[in-house]
## 1
Amino acid sequence: MKTLADLGDLRGKTVLVRSDFNVPLDGDVITDDGRIRAALPTLTALLDGGAKVVVTAHLGRPKGAPEAKYSLAPVAKRLGELLGKDVALADDLVGDSAKATVATLGEGEIALLENVRFDARETSKVDDERAALAAELVGLGADAFVSDGFGVVHRKQASVYDVALALPHAAGTLVEKEVASLNKAIADPERPYTVVLGGSKVSDKLGVIANLLEKADNLVIGGGMVFTFLAAKGYEVGKSLLEEDQIPTVQGYLARAEERGVSIVLPTDIVAAEAFDKDAAFEVVAADAIPADAIGLDIGPDSAAAFADVIKASRTIVWNGPMGVFEFPSFAGGTRAVAQAMIDATAAGAFSIVGGGDSAAAVRLLGFDEDGFSHISTGGGASLELLEGKTLPGLAVLED
């Protein structure tokens, strides 16, 4: 995979950078700027090298047309604060405003184009449509392309894939670090190798589980997806999240794990509530005795301690998905225990990866020191697909 060094001297050159600025907002206030901060090393390196930097990014899920609530204006403001310099924001992506904004850039200056997903061609399944948008982006005067949005490298989209076909290209330092860290866990992990999986749906992680059954020593399962595992063992799960159509698949996983000698660690107790509400009354019950009218919202304290023991005995740990509804303080205990155990394991010499998405958000929301982990990914979906063993188009295109 080509890196920034392969692009040579970029002073005076216009460099198109794809970043991932899909940050959570409360109105126009960014509630977690982790992805913006993660982009700073690449942007700073380019600016210090005298490049004219033009950034493309998306925010939210607009339907291929401008929507005010998905404007990148809050991102431009925060990026400018973090960089300590003005970030010009174009009013459009490839229109008159974009052309004028890019034309006025000097060496070491930066501009942000408006949300790339305001143009339906960005996510088109038609190659020619994506290529046309890529050509217009290149036509703004770009001399090179740097891919630094790890959260989108699993997407075959115009600003991720097609522009790389049309320009000299390289991975930014963020993408380079992400790939190196995940490959360390995937290709030759120091053992015991433990993967902690949570989140809402087991169907989102079917391919990952199947792949990890051939590679990991321990699979620790929590979150909403655990109830399909418990149901597969014949347990009552009450009103908890359940994918009944996946029960046979999960039963197959349990059998395969036994054949392979892989330990699938499930909770022995559950925090069961009367409703999905932060103030709901709750009780801790055995995992095989969830009341029919209750909903499981977290793993219980015994399970949290057992999960922590497995993690702290491991040498490589990858975590993707919270153990419960961590946004509600009453149901954050399991997620908190996993995060702390990973920090303890890392301090003892283990290699730990937080696999982006809700896991990374939980680390920040619960107040953990991000430096306590070996690596915190910025891309949950991309991390999962790498763990699944897939080829990611936005990475493959950087190899030629």
Note: The mean pLDDT is 96.
## 2
Amino acid sequence: MNKLNRIIFAILFIFIGIHAYAGGDGKFSIVLSGTQTQPRVLACKAPEFSFHFPQMAGNFKLGLISDQKSLWCSEMKDVKLNKKDGKLTYTLEDNLLKEGRVIVRVAKLTDSDGFVMEVEGVNLPTGLNLFWSFGGSYAKVLPNKTDSDLKPEYCKDNVFSVEGSAFTVYYGESLDLKVIQAVVPEESDIRLSDAHKQTNPLTFHESGKRTDAPALTGTRKLINGKLYFCFYTQNTKADYNSFMIPELFKKEF
């Protein structure tokens, strides 16, 4: 390899490194927050995310429900991802959306671990619901963070406290209790669900709360407009309510 080729190879390696997690080529390969060697928030090629502080703090993913049909965003007909300046934009299209599309924009938080998300519906048919799930706050460092799906064994000791459109998850040992907080769209139908039953969003949402693997699921009417999510760890600079999230998104994105 001559000198010029070595230089080109080095540049390409660095370029790839800032986009893909160096820990492997698994599903969660995009670093949204943290570093390549110590990621804090990892993302997938479809809207699904995992939190590592550095212990596994949870998994969040999106889906769609239309009457008795449902699918995860990763199963949609066309999913495009644009990465720019550390921010992610997903454009989703599928037969369920007809001629419409859903645009998901995500940015990491400046004052806290976590992210803020905007979900925009464009030219959508009626009768659609956005589905989301959160769970798997394992409180242990995963040996391979690119494999951080919502697994039932990660959910065992999670405790959820829901207040309106916000919730808090308590996880870990009682003497070393950890917390992650979230704000989801207002008017969401939030349920305690069974992480053993994730075949599709509708099955998950209707799975019931009698389980040894509790997770939260929620649905919200998908509108031709914008909905917001935020996941964060609370501190003196980060303590959010739903009315604050649109402005927070504008600031971060």
Note: The CA atoms of residues 70 and 201 lie 6 Å apart.
## 3
Amino acid sequence: MTAANGPLRKFKSVEGGKRLSRLPVASALRTLDLELKGLAELRDALSGEMSRPFGEALKLLRAARGRVVVTGIGKSGHVGQKVAATFASTGRPAFFVHPTEASHGDLGMVTPDDVLLALSWSGETVELKPLITYSRRFKVPLIAVTSRGDSALGQQADIVLALPRVKEACPHGLAPTTSTTMQLAIGDCLAIALLEAKGFTANEFKTFHPGGSLGASLKFVADVMHKREDLPLARSTDPMSDALVTMTQKSFGCLGIVDAKGKLIGMVTDGDLRRHMGADLVRARTADIMTRRPKTVSPKMLASAALELINASRITAVFVVDGGKPIGIVHIHDLLRAGIA
């Protein structure tokens, strides 16, 4: 592709529009400022008048025997789908019901054991009426996320999370922008508060996220460690002549030193060998060469945390211990091959 009709020509056209480029950046910054203001007001509300209803909503969500049924229309509906997905991925069974589909049979998916979480900025969304009516008829708890507590939705709800009425980032005040950012934020607040209240663990989180880079980062040391016959181990009384053979055969660049009870008391690394290089090295005992109290990890530690430890300590391998005894070893290459970064 030539400069006349290729990337260079495109580059020149962009350079020629420098004055125009300032406008989009200014618009973007204004949008962020308005949305940040909305989040700041939401934070103030949670610290004040919204504190009590938020706590009540959390108790309701935690005590429910069924699922969290999230609903909304338009942009609120799109936010609702994400909120439902966040609840589900953090251990609280949840799904999204479209209001229109609900009035055409999907109301059968909602039971009295569930909690209905309805998102509507105005609180006057006509499409929500069948769901609201159904929830009142069958005593399905209803939490409203709206900017108007005195709206039709707010008046019918058991709990109202009244969002501050703020200016949309849209210059016409029409496109939902700041409002949907706040809806998304309050949904995250509920999901994370519920996660913490239930004591949802990283191990449980891994169950719902087995794939991708997130799944890799949620692996545990036990999932990636070498064990049993692969371990480079020697006794504290062993001569370095024998220890060097074991260290070379295992190819980890280190050697774990155990006492008579099999507990890890030290570690010999390539660095230790260089520091003690000399004619007497092979005649020395491992206890004379080893570094005492080496860094170790638990098999239940997240592999990502083990990688952080390895990087921070500027080492290449770490022993995995249980009850003081070495049961595995993890090398930095094992963690990188597993996709942990």
Note: Residues 6-16 have pLDDT under 50 and may be disordered.
